Every structure is written in C-alpha cells, then in structure tokens.
Amino acid sequence: MALVLPVAAPAAPAAAIGQSTALGGGFDACAAPSTKVMKAWWSPSPYWWIGIYIGGNERACRQRNLTASWVRTTSSIGWGFEPLRVGAQMSSANGCSSIDFWNYISRDLSRAWGQGWYSAQQAVSEARDLGFGRGSIIYYDLEAYSTGKPGCVAAADNFVRGWVRGLHYQGYHAGVYGGSCGSDFNSLAHLGSGRVPDAINGAAWDGNPHTGDLPCVSSRFWVNSQRLKQYKGSHNETHGGYKLNIDSDCADGPIEDAHVVNDAGDGCSWSSSSSATSAAMPAPSSATTCAAGQLGLARLRTGLAGTTVYYTVVLRNRSSSPCRLAGYPGVQLRASRGLPMATHAQPGAAGLAQPAPGSAVELAPGAEASATLSFYSDSADPAACPPAQGFTLATGNGGGVVVPVPLDPCGGTVGVTPFVAGASPPG
Fold first, then answer.
1. pLDDT digit string (tens) for 402-415?
2. pTM for the whole thing?
3. Contact predicate 176/214, CB 8 Å
4. Spatial separation of the C-alpha atoms in residues 138 and 145, rounded to whole Å
5. Strand blocks (E) in 335-397
6. Which domains does the chain have, with CATH numbers?
C-alpha cells in the first residue's frame, strides 16, 4: 500500500509577521509569558526577540498565553519571534538516545522522512493559526542523540530532509534547533540541494554569544546570516519587576519580526567570533534608526543578467536630522490598490557580493543609502511568476518606502542585500 502523506491547505499569503535577519539577543522560555510581562521586559532587558514553542507532541509546557492575539500584541511592542516545534525525537525506544521520548523518530529511513514531512504540515497549520504565513521560518527542536551510531544519524538526517522539503513545499523556510555537538549539524549540512536547513540554532552553553563560535559545527556551513546560538541554559532573570526562567540566545540569522533588529553591540555576529573580540568597538552613535517619513526614494537603478532582474533602491534622508540604517530591509510585494502579496524575502542577491549585515550606515540630512533586490522573472508564466504593481522596502522603526515599479518575481521570492552607503549599482 502506498504511503499517503497529509498536506496542509495552502497557507494564507498575507498572514506573516515578516521574516527578517536579526542581529541581536533573544531568549526562550518553556511557556510564552503574558503580554504584561513582555511589555515590562521590553525596555530594561537586553533582548529583542523570543523563542516560542508553537506545537509538537513533545512540547513540555502548556501554552495558555500563546494565541494569534498574543503574537500581534507582542509584535506591536517590538518583539520578534523564533517559532519552534518540538515533536518526535531520537529516543531510547529506538536505541538512539539515553532519554525515553514517548514519540520517537523511526529508524526506517522512509518512515523517518514521512514523519518529517508530516511534522512540517502540522507546523504550517500551527504557524498559520498564530499569524505566521508563507515566507516564515519554523525551527524544529531536534534534541541531542547518539551521533556515534550511523543508523541513528541516517534516521535523523532523513527526518530533517522530510521536514525541510515539507516546509519548502508550503512556501515556508526550515530551521533546526539542537545541541551544537549533540544534534550533528555537520551531517545536516550534507543533505543535498533543497534539503539542507535554511538556518540553525545551536545550543552551546559556553557563555559566548558569538554565532561564529558553535562547537562541532564547521565554519564553512550556514555562514550568510543563518545562525542562532543558545549560549546560556536555564537561569532566572528579572526585568521590569518580573522574574522568568529562560535560556539566552543570540541571532545572526532569520527570525519572524515586523521590525529589523540590528544590535551589533550584543556580540552575536558570525564574524565577531572569539578570535576577533579584541578589536576596538566603534564609539556609539547618537543617530537613531530612520523613522517613517525620514527617507524618500531618490532613484531606482536596474540591471538584467539572463532571467535575473536586479533593482538597486537608493534612499535619501530628506529630514533635517541624522538617522541610521543597518541590516537587511524588509520586502513586501504589492498587488493592485496596494494590497500585500505573498513575499518570500531571503538574504543575499543572486550573483552579487554580499556586504556585511552588521555595519550600520549613518545618514546625514541629504545623504543616501541603498539595498539591492534580485529575482527570477518569466513573464510568459504569470501563474508561477505573478505580477506585482510595486513593493515596500521596510527600513525598521516603523519606516518604509513604497517603490511603485512593476515586477514579477517567480514564486514571490526576492533576494535582498543589506544596506550600504551610497548607490552601488547591481552587477
């Protein structure tokens, strides 16, 4: 009998909070705190985002607060999110762990793949219910297991293959959280094209926040702002009068956020590894992130290489006050009447060298900065490459610039570079 795998209904395209590449500290807790606590923690804590367990049959805590309303309210405060799912694990039941998980990954490779696919479909449904639509990233919590047993590694690898393929099929990005050494990330880096996780969160409780310092993970893998690190395990912290038991994390990689988090001072950057920590930190700037209304579209530069289209968006500070831009801009495609379309923004523009995302661009009044978008275009196939009437380039702090130019990115997928000073043309 053929194995029939469930497939979630297509995800609502306009529901996503919006994936962005974060550079800054976060935390995770077993259960999502109340919005009152999240508001109290926002200003005094050093954190910008929170890991939330959206589902899975091995989820340890009840999530009384975790609703779509909670996500909207917490996002409006300023928080970003790392959605996590914790389902079947390698277990003592299959000889692959010292821990007896009730729900375990099969050592039959085809079944393991199917379990990963099925978990991805469940994750899509759970994420959609909370307001994370297509283009979002979901991290699978794969706990440490017996990586010295080849059969266990093969089963875990096939499970992750199914997880990644299942999420990509639904238009989501796929991440994996696990022990930096105990979940064998190096093996996951060799799963084949389209099957390697888009990002990882490695747990290494060494107190070092730098995402470039992940023990047992080769420096050749997940290097383009694709890493999170859980650097401190369970401990209590008090901020704003409320105490929580948390794990501390750092990100130089994708989270779900309506805002662009960029705080190089947190020491999260992949390039800020321990070998470079003696470098002097730049003096703090008095300029704040460019707010809504401060920036205007100066000009748009275009380029074409085969079927790849490049747009360099040049922004000008048209206010009388200095401001700064940093990291990757958010991108939202727009249909007629300005309605949002499904958008899959990802770091890096095809064929272009990628600037370092941690470098802030200071904009004096009248100064310019730019970011380049790339996408594949095929006007002969409007079903696969739906036409958009323009896009919004989000700059953080509530800022954004509308670019009213027609475009037809296939699959709604757009690559984007970090902001740089001036107007660097595509090429």
1. 888 888 888 777 87
2. 0.63
3. no
4. 21
5. 344-347, 361-363, 368-376, 390-396
6. 19-276 (3.20.20.80), 288-421 (2.60.40.10)
